[in-house]
Amino acid sequence: MDKSYCYKRRLIGLLTALLLLPVGLTAQPRYRVAACDWMMLKRQKLGEFQLTRDIGADGVEMDMGPLGQRVLFDNKLRDDHFRRLFRHTADSLGVLVPSMAMSGFFAQSFLKRDNYRDLIQDCIASMRVMGATVAFLPLGGSGREWQQPGGEHDEMVRRLHDVGELAAQAGVVIAIRTSLDAQSNIRLLQEVDSRGIKIYYNLQDAVDQGLDPAAELQTLGAERIGQIHASLTDSVTLDRDPRIDLRRVKSALDRIGWSGWLVVERSRDAKDVRNVRGNFGRNVAYLKEIFCQPTATPKQ
Questions:
Q1: What is the DSSP string of 41-93?
Q2: Alpha carbons 225 and 202: distance in angstroms, whole number
Q3: What's the CA angle centered on 285, arms 280 and 290, to 5 degrees?
Q4: Cα–Cα distance between 179 and 160 in angstroms, integer?
Q5: Alpha-carbon gap, residue 159 to 41, rounded angstroms
Q6: Per-residue pLDDT tens over the stretch 237-270
Q7: pLDDT tens, 217-238?
């Protein structure tokens, strides 16, 4: 029998066996921690990767750049020079980019941009460059009328389905921040009906609305959660914030079998809000203490 054929068969068998290993036996951790570059005042700046490493995070959520009155995002990753430079720097420092954010839609309506497909395709192209698998699309700039039955709601559903299919074809996910509760998010996802759209769950939204994040996450279920912004409205850092019990949040995520990235957006000390290293470093360290410590094996 041809030796190269036998080698290929053995290799395929080994790869198949690795794929069938339980999650706990693989090298990839269940939870990893990142931070938002624009909130660290490093939006699409080369220094964001060293800063990410300095604060102890595993990765950084890169923003697509400002939008304003521009046709497209002010995105350096359309330039071949910056594509090579950013990717090389991230790789050399061992910093991952799990997601790209379109923070411009905090201030602008996704419903009023006629070129919304171009903006999404720009984001997907940038994700390919940096190896990201999740795009963050906040819908805060679209107001609240779309959340009620009517023309705006129908148009939002249509557009989300449209860009969700673009994402699915590219093998990535667009995770939307809606400010809706879990049941409303489930209904929205059912209407959108695209595997390329999931929820970017934000602990801040739940806490600010008096909801229980642990219960909401459990209701949503692992398959509907694209990624999680694991921080609250600026007041104090997470380790000193009585508004949330992150151990309960972890227990809920463990129960539903979710695995992914926890991204620090806020939870800055309101008395020292511009202390980027202090605030983000402390929040990253606390999330890792809660979510990334190995679980002790019970004695037999």
A1: T-TT-TTHHHHHHHTT-SEEEEE----TT-SS---GGGSHHHHHHHHHHHHHH
A2: 10
A3: 130
A4: 16
A5: 31
A6: 999 999 999 999 999 999 999 999 999 999 999 9
A7: 999 999 999 999 999 999 999 9
**What is the spatial distance between Cα 282 and Cα 54, in angstroms, rounded to a whole number?**
11
Q: How far apart are CA 48 and CA 201, in angstroms?
A: 24
| pLDDT, position 299 | 43
What lies within 8 Å, CB to CB, of 141 at 6+ separation is 105, 106, 107, 108, 109, 110
d(CA 70, CA 186): 33
Distance separating alpha carbons of residues 52 and 1, to the nearest angstrom: 52
Helix (H) or strand (E) holding 187: helix 182-192
For the cut 70, the answer to whether the pLDDT of residue 18 exceeds it is: no
Angstrom distance (rounded) from CA 262 to CA 283: 11
CB-based contact 101:140 (threshold 8 Å): no
Residue 67 · residue 47 · CB < 8 Å? no
| CA distance from start to end of the chain | 48
Condensed to tens digits (0 to 9), the pLDDT of residues 166-201 reads: 999 999 999 999 999 999 999 999 999 999 999 999
Q: Which of these, 230, 240, 224, lies nearest to 272 by C-alpha position?
A: 240
Q: Give phi and psi for 98, each to the nearest 5.
A: -75, -25
Distance CA 49, CA 60 (A): 7
Whether the Cβ atoms of residue 36 and residue 264 lie closer than 8 Å to each other: yes
The token pair at 90 is: 């991230």
